[in-house]
Design brief:
The chain is of the alpha/beta class. The chain is 33% helix and 17% strand. Helix 7 packs antiparallel against helix 14, helix 8 packs across helix 11 and helix 11 crosses helix 14.
Length: 451
């Protein structure tokens, strides 16, 4: 299943490299009689002509979906033309935002993501769904030849991640993961300092993630008890391939993360950020741990949520590097910290610290020290659109997302089984523990299946 992360995604020129929509627009333009066309449609005054804009469909209209959509609305070479959600209220609110932005009614609403993906005039999609839906939507999007901006973690299980990786490569799709920290200068600088050996030989890495449930406070009794789903929500489709459990309002929007049927707690919600940066600095984008030992503190059984609130995962990596991923342990500070024989670097959102005070003053590493130059992006959503056009890999391609998330999945399996795991990086298999190996996948609720 493991594949090289640097691949060629096909031609960027000629009829084969352009969407049917663009081909028809350009072909039609050559045959049409002269008409008066607004300047912005022709790309005048600094705008981008409609024929050169990437048409985007949005799947998932919650917090992340809305935030990503607003970012794409600010990109001149992108046109959001469709949105999909099983919650009519959220869907309607986002469609209104898009149409108000463009001053028209061209963005169309969809209840079923498969109907949106069937549109031949859509070039790319943004997927921001609960974790248990990532693989189903992403594999179908790849099958429909859409380029994909997909939220982290890559998927709900390692087997589902493998399916996404396979589909993206098979159908030559451009993939960007929502691990946007790679497009932030401080994270880029920190990773380059480590990769260029300024801290010496890496010995240890510490990855600090949040604990608890984002300070979620749900006090209303009707939010904690099973009820009938609200009329605006298709709860059966929302549950989809997961096992059906009673509707409880506190398990839905945003809080689905704290239930293992749908998400993976803070560990899986954040591993695609800080562990992703840790891997970047260690050159582990196509590697992973060989030994994993996880420990978690879980809420009482039978409650609304079941994800660990405090957790710690110890991992052994190639080159003798030890890594700790933890939430709720004061000895591991939030963010990513690399510790080497000659110094250390720590980076977090809004924070940069290092054993050498001079490094903090650098906007980026001095050019003469940059023997290893990491991929640079200053606009995560814009990087995706640029790569859709160039057919070159994004800053967070699918293989990177897969390997950045595997430590979290293995840590969670170790926490749930109470056993240390041996992981074969090349075959992507758990060794000597059949019960744990079965947790690399999950059973889908009929009739859903992942082909």
């Amino acid at each position: 299943m493991k594949q090289a992360s640097t691949i060629h995604h096909g031609s960027s020129g000629g009829a084969e490299g352009m969407s049917r929509r663009r081909f028809m627009v350009r072909a039609g333009a050559a045959l049409a009689l002269p008409v008066l066309v607004p300047g912005h449609a022709l790309g005048l005054a600094g705008s981008v002509a409609a024929s050169n804009r990437i048409t985007l469909g949005v799947i998932g209209c919650g917090n992340m979906g809305t935030g990503n959509t607003k970012s794409f609305l600010s990109e001149a070479d992108c046109q959001v033309v469709a949105a999909c959600d099983v919650d009519k209220n959220r869907l309607g609110a986002l469609v209104d935002i898009v149409n108000e932005n463009y001053g028209n009614q061209d963005c169309k609403p969809y209840h079923d993501y498969r109907d949106l993906l069937a549109r031949k005039d859509i070039d790319a999609v943004m997927i921001a769904l609960p974790d248990h839906w990532h693989a189903m939507a992403a594999v179908e999007a790849a099958r429909q030849k859409k380029d994909i901006y997909g939220e982290k973690p890559l998927a709900h299980t390692i087997a589902e991640q493998q399916a996404i990786v396979h589909a993206v490569h098979k159908h030559h799709c451009i993939w960007q993961t929502g691990s946007w920290q790679r497009s932030v200068k401080t994270f880029h600088k920190a990773a380059e300092i480590v990769r260029n050996g300024l801290i010496g030989t890496i010995q240890r890495v510490e990855v600090g993630l949040p604990k608890d449930y984002n300070n979620a406070e749900v006090t209303e009794k009707d939010h904690l008890l099973p009820t009938e789903p609200p009329p605006e929500l298709d709860y059966d489709l929302w549950v989809g391939p997961a096992q059906m459990i009673p509707y409880i309002r506190a398990r839905l929007h945003r809080h689905w993360r704290w239930n293992y049927d749908f998400g993976g707690g803070q560990l899986m919600d954040w591993v695609g950020h800080h562990c992703d940066i840790a891997h970047w600095g260690c050159d582990f984008d196509n590697s992973g741990p060989s030994e994993v030992a996880g420990h978690g503190e879980f809420p009482p059984k039978g409650g609304v949520w079941d994800a660990a609130k405090v957790y710690r995962v110890e991992l052994k990596y190639p080159r003798g590097i030890d890594m700790t991923i933890a939430g709720g342990h004061p000895d591991i500070q939030p963010g990513t910290k690399w510790i080497g024989t000659d110094g250390w670097v720590h980076v977090d959102r809004g924070a940069f610290n290092a054993s050498n005070a001079e490094w903090a003053g650098w906007k980026q590493m001095p050019e003469e020290l940059r023997k290893t130059k990491l991929y640079q992006s200053n606009d995560h959503h814009g990087n995706f659109l640029a790569c859709v056009k160039s057919r070159q890999p994004t800053i967070t391609p699918v293989d990177t997302a897969h390997h950045s998330t595997i430590p979290g999945h293995l840590g969670l399996i170790s926490m749930l089984t109470g056993r240390e795991l041996k992981w074969d990086v090349k075959s992507e298999k758990i060794l000597g523990d059949p019960e744990a190996a079965r947790m690399l996948t999950r059973n889908f609720r009929p009739p859903w299946k992942l082909d």
